[in-house]
Amino acid sequence: MKNKTVQQTIVDRGAVYGDFCETAYISQKLKGALKTGNLDKEIRITTQQREALEMICVKIARIVTGDPNYEDNWRDIAGYAMLGGNLTGENNNE
Fold this sequence. Notes:
Blueprint: H1 6-17, H2 20-34, H3 39-43, H4 47-65, H5 71-84
């Protein structure tokens, strides 16, 4: 593994994930949409479900601003959906 500066890592990630500021903006807008629903419904969402949904928002933002063909983002979305929906066969209650 070659040594990289933090700046080079940021440049490398930007090529795949897009501009950080733009990605952050889109991600926060998507996360905000999660919070606009009825507050009573929010109570029914577990911590794990909320985290999974928020991570999916990050991945969607990366797809939109970066390389839409970067397979890891799509796999991550599928993985977070499995975890959030408790479809892994594990019982992860709060």
